[in-house]
Design goal:
Elements: E1 4-9, E2 12-17, H1 28-42, E3 49-54, H2 65-70, H3 76-94, E4 100-104, E5 108-109, H4 111-118, E6 121-125, E7 129-131, H5 145-152, H6 154-163, E8 166-168, H7 169-174, E9 180-182, H8 187-198, H9 203-218, H10 221-237, H11 239-249, H12 255-258
Parallel strand pairs: 2-3, 3-4, 4-6, 5-7, 6-9
Antiparallel strand pairs: 1-2, 7-8
Helix pairs in contact: 1-3, 3-4, 4-5, 5-6, 9-10
Length: about 260
């Protein structure tokens, strides 16, 4: 891949946006590569956790100017097709059945802040800055709204979407976009502790938990009730659920902790 770098370290993969000279801004190629990378990681049984970050000083500055300029010449139908490709990329990241840890090393603006909203656990450097600045260009954060609004809530989304103002990592934590804010020098050590934590959890349980959250917030009440009842029954009777309970009762580590998958890297 040209604009995405995948680095494997045992069961952990770092997925790095790799256009540092352009602050890791989106273009059509990066969007396609990021979607392909997520689809690849989703089906790899040796991958237990994914760290999403950006090369250089920025996390992701959203869309690059050349890509945005090209939209001026697109018809409405062509713009719909373009937005569909962008939406598919976000969906592949949001539904990735592995824990996605956001390592926010710098500015995350527009579509970059949308990527942050798709992460399960977000650790941001104190120097990181955020913003949904689309209205400054006369457009709106439409595609990413599906992920941002549930993450930060309607009130904060309205305030930030209509103002387009930039905000710091502390405010991002306050509204729920970010979970931990740490000194820049401690970013990697804190991300490492998060990785250690998620690797002690059952891989299939993590995937089930991610689907559970989505079901609870999207399904009608009756359907959500039926889903949750079936979900716990399925989890309890699964091989992983049985192993986890037996390990707890026998006061030992479950197999997924004792036998971490390894790669030849």
């Amino acid at each position: 891949m040209k604009f995405i770098q995948l680095t494997h370290s045992g069961p952990v993969v770092t997925l790095m946006l790799n256009r540092p000279d352009l602050h890791n801004a989106f273009n059509a190629e990066l969007i396609a590569e990021l979607r392909a990378a997520c689809e690849q990681l989703a089906v790899d049984p040796l991958v237990r956790a994914v760290v999403l970050t950006g090369a250089g000083k920025s996390f992701c500055a959203g869309a690059d100017l050349t890509w945005m300029r090209s939209s001026l010449d697109l018809t409405h139908d062509e713009n719909v097709a373009d937005a569909e490709r962008l939406a598919a990329m976000y969906e592949s990241l949001n539904t990735l059945p592995k824990p996605v840890i956001g390592r926010i090393n710098g500015a995350a603006v527009g579509g970059g802040a949308g990527l942050v909203a798709c992460c399960d656990i977000v650790v941001a450097a104190e120097s990181a800055r955020f913003g949904f600045s689309e209205v400054k260009l006369g457009i709106i954060p439409a595609v990413i709204a599906r992920y941002v609004v549930p993450k930060i809530g309607v009130s904060h989304a309205r305030a930030l979407f209509v103002s387009g103002r930039r905000f710091d990592a502390t405010h991002a934590q306050r509204i729920g976009l970010v979970h931990d804010v740490v000194p820049d020098a401690k970013l990697d050590s804190v991300v490492g502790k998060v990785i250690e934590d998620v690797l002690t959890s059952g891989p299939e349980a993590i995937a089930r938990a991610k689907r559970l959250v989505q079901a609870v917030v999207s399904l009608p009440e009756d359907e959500a009730r039926r889903y949750t009842v079936a979900a716990i029954a399925d989890a309890r009777t699964s091989e992983e659920g049985q192993e986890g309970l037996r390990a707890f009762l026998e006061k030992r580590q479950p197999r997924w902790v004792e036998q971490q998958p390894r790669r030849g890297f």
